Amino acid sequence: MKRAFVFLVVAPVSVFVMVLLSCVAIFGGKSADLATLCAVVLAVVTLPASVIAGLADGYLSVLPISLRAYLTAMVGAAIATGEALVLFSSLLPPSIVLTLAIGGAVLMGACSLLSHDYGGRHRHSLEPVSA
Question: Which among 4, 45, 97, 124 has the fewest CB atoms less than 10 Å away?
């Protein structure tokens, strides 16, 4: 349940807040409507990427967190790049596609770290063979 909440709620909300604050800081308060529109579009586009990365993170839960966070970040970068190329095709310059890939990697890696159970119990990726 914690993984679903982090990937499906925290990720899009954090994208919305960061894009809104960045656009307001860049464009000023007079174009807050444009900033809100950009933030909503990117938050909606983030949701399918969060679902796929959350499923990948759940599947990789047998790995240690140090490896799982990097792999989930790579999945997030690949999904963000794929979405940008499919949705916007040739409209975006490569610098923006690279920025979206980096943002997707950072966001999904952070979600993987936030959804990890740090309860103190150590799980081994491979169980010892009992005789």
Answer: 124
